[in-house]
């Protein structure tokens, strides 16, 4: 459903939020390791998230990534998805057909519209705080 970049972005943001709640700034290398993503790919994703004001990035030997504690509850899953994948998750045919639309729907168009609307609601109503605090201790769900 989400691109691989978006999946890594969600995992990375959750990990950074968990560490930020403990007052820690985390390095690119640590994030990449914890979410199981290649370092260079993770750097691009984190840059995109920082550019979209989801993460704070500090350069230098004591630098790294963090999120202000007071912002963690305000950031929604939809913000993270939009920063990486844009609006593409809300567009296009559920079967991947090129010419499917409301005027010329595919066989699952109307059903898929309902699912897409429910997904949008879930993404807009799920906070980063909810995601971060909902994981078990040990971060067993961030990395396969």
UniProtKB/TrEMBL annotation:
GO terms for cellular component: cytosol. It comes from the Bacteria. GO terms for molecular function: DNA-binding transcription factor activity. Pfam families: Rrf2. Transmembrane segments: none annotated. This is Transcriptional regulator, BadM/Rrf2 family.
């Amino acid at each position: 459903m989400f691109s691989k970049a978006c999946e890594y972005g969600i995992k990375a943001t959750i990990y950074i939020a968990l560490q930020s709640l403990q007052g820690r700034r985390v390095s690119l290398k640590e994030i990449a390791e914890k979410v199981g993503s290649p370092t260079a790919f993770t750097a691009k994703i984190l840059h995109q998230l920082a550019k979209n004001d989801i993460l704070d990035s500090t350069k230098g030997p004591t630098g790294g990534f963090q999120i202000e504690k007071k912002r963690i509850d305000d950031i929604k899953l939809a913000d993270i998805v939009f920063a990486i994948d844009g609006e593409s998750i809300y567009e296009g045919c559920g079967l991947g057909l090129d010419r499917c639309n409301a005027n010329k729907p595919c066989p699952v168009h109307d059903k898929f519209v309902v699912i897409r609307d429910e997904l949008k609601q879930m993404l807009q109503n799920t906070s980063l705080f909810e995601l971060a605090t909902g994981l078990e201790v040990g971060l067993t769900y961030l990395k396969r």
